[in-house]
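[09:14] KT: can someone run the structure on this one? pasting the chain below
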Amino acid sequence: MSSARGRANQCLYLARILTAAWQRDLAAETIPASVLAQAYLPCVRSHLRDAYGWFLVEVTRPGVLPDLPPTCIAELPEVAQGKAVPPEVREFHLLEGSGWIAEMLAADADSATSASSMGNLATAVTAADPQRASQWADLLQALFDRMGDSLDEC
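[09:31] RB: done, structure tokens below
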């Protein structure tokens, strides 16, 4: 396993740990769901974005790993002259344009409304729950597994 793929898997694992904690905290019903979403969603998304970025590095195999993973296809270095763009990159490009990866990569501010109630510093978060975050992690894992098999054959 390459270092980039290992980093992607580690980030995915960390996202799953946070998602499980988010689900436990929701079940405990001691903190409002909107506050939990505000606490967990940015961290879960950050780990998922990093997992995705490290896998992009794995797909493109740049030789030297960057210090930080790219956050999207646009941040990848240009493909060397005479080399074809990997089909995985084209697939990710489509998913970034419209699809679950676009949703996952969306800025945290897009998921949160800025209306907070008087005396409450937490903002309400819409369309964000641990189930959706878990779906993103599952979808990423499925892509990593499928694409990893084809990358290993090269």
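[09:33] KT: thanks! Helices lie at 3-28, 33-60, 87-97, 100-105, 108-111, 130-153.
[09:34] RB: yep, looked fine to me
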